[in-house]
Amino acid sequence: MTLAATVASTYALDVVAAAAGVALVASGLLANVGHQWLLVFVAASYACWGHGLHAGLKANQALLTTTGTSTNLLSKAAYDLTRRRTGSARAARLAAAAGYTTAELAKEAPYYAAAFGTAVVSDSVTSREALVFLGGANLAAALYEHGLARLTRAFLDRRRGRYASFDTDWVPQDYLDGYYRTVEPDEIETIAFFVDAMRHAERGRPVLFFGVGPTLHHVFAAAEVASEIHLGDYLPANLAEIRRWIDREPGAHDWRPFVRHTLRCEGVSHPSDEDVAAREDLTRAKITELLQVDARHPRPVDRRYATVISAYCADSATDDRATWQLFMRHISGLVRPGGLFVTAALRRCRGYTVAGRAFPSADIDEHDLRAVLQADFTPRDGSIQVRHTAQDDAHGYAAIVLCRARRRTRPDHG
Ligand SMILES: C[S@@+](CC[C@H](N)C(=O)[O-])C[C@H]1O[C@@H](n2cnc3c(N)ncnc32)[C@H](O)[C@@H]1O
């Protein structure tokens, strides 16, 4: 997409700027202006162009950080490389700006070559006309940059308007009420899969849950295996909801049906109330950290884990596939070599509703998941499975993808 956008915008800029330059010369509007005023005009046209460039640069930054794409290939390459190498969002933004400006300056070269080259080799174009041409081309380029910036902003605004925002619209209680009053088909499958996955986890090590939301239903499966459980989410309100459950506050969510299902999946055919309470107590004792995390950050937590579990987080936090890939790389990057990554995602879903509000989903499937993990995780020692859950009417998705994968101890060069 970036390549296509770069080619299209370069071509459009060239056509618009060159046509404007030629039209200004042909119009004869500046034919009788004195040489000094002509130089002032050219200088002013550069100022306008610089202003347009600034607007374009800012819009490009917004496009890059929200979607991972750009209308300038060099800018995106610089952004991605710097982000991967340094892990610093600020350094990546500076690199993106440098890439954008360099590419835009390079686009100026053909105008100098065309204008002054023709003036030197041919008598049909005077140096005065070359200056008028440059000024006209600069003004058109400025208008073009402003137009492109406006278009980019309008595109981003429309995307933003389509979905509710975690920062302003997410209400933990609504999510719990809408999805976790009973154990629904997707969770029957997810919990069974997670229980099985925990048989492959290294025992006696801390386990990280990334993007846990206000929920604990997946956490019970890890309580016996983990030495400690660390729960991470983007929203403090979600972590506060978990804290209420840990502290047994009145009104805290009732997770007992999910604990019971977990125990059944583990092979306890008729879990008693005491069994359920014992697992809740064990889980409370193992949770040692509540962490505020952000998948947009290349290193969302400053340590690596033998086991990381992230359910319905990366795919349920964005509607953009490139952003999902980025989030997945950041989250799975928290698994240390040889460690286990367990994840779940809504399959081919564009959005799910919470209390009537649509939250985004990345519209991914099992092939996307395999592709995003294959560089660092071995598919042979793992499993990716699809379960059809037919919850389209209630929640907006018909299937889920479940995955367990082991991180390679060495990078794969094959
Ligand atoms: C659909 S909920 C899933 C919660 C829980 N894992 C579950 O299975 O119910 C999506 C979660 O992603 C979290 N999230 C959204 N943006 C995030 C980000 N940038 N970094 C980390 N988590 C994020 C939200 O706070 C929310 O808790």
Structure description:
- This protein is α/β, with parallel strands linked by helices.
- The protein folds into two domains: 2-162, no CATH class; 166-407, Rossmann fold.
- Helix content is 55%, strand content 18%.
- The chain contains 14 helices and nine strands.
- It has helices at 2-27, 35-67, 73-86, 89-121, 127-162, 166-169, 172-179, 185-198, 236-246, 256-266, 273-286, 321-332, 366-373, 392-395; strands at residues 205-210, 226-233, 287-292, 305-311, 335-346, 351-354, 357-360, 377-391, 397-407.
- The strands form two sheets. It has a seven-stranded mixed β-sheet, sandwiched between helices. It has a two-stranded antiparallel sheet with strand order 6-7.
- A hairpin with a 2-residue loop joins strand 6 and strand 7 (357-360).
- Helix 1 runs antiparallel to helix 5, helix 3 runs antiparallel to helix 4 and helix 8 crosses helix 10 (256-266).
- The radius of gyration is 28 Å and the shape is elongated.
- It starts with a helix and ends in a 7-residue tail after the last strand.
- The relative contact order is 0.10.
- Bound molecules: S-adenosylmethionine.
- The site of S-adenosylmethionine has 18 residues, from loops.
Strands, helices and their partners?
Layout: H1 2-27, H2 35-67, H3 73-86, H4 89-121, H5 127-162, H6 166-169, H7 172-179, H8 185-198, E1 205-210, E2 226-233, H9 236-246, H10 256-266, H11 273-286, E3 287-292, E4 305-311, H12 321-332, E5 335-346, E6 351-354, E7 357-360, H13 366-373, E8 377-391, H14 392-395, E9 397-407
Parallel strand pairs: 1-2, 1-4, 2-3, 4-5
Antiparallel strand pairs: 5-9, 6-7, 8-9
Helix pairs in contact: 1-5, 2-4, 2-5, 3-4, 4-5, 8-10, 10-11
The structure holds S-adenosylmethionine.
S-adenosylmethionine (SAM) binds at residues 166, 211-213, 215, 233-235, 238, 293-296, 311-313, 316-317.
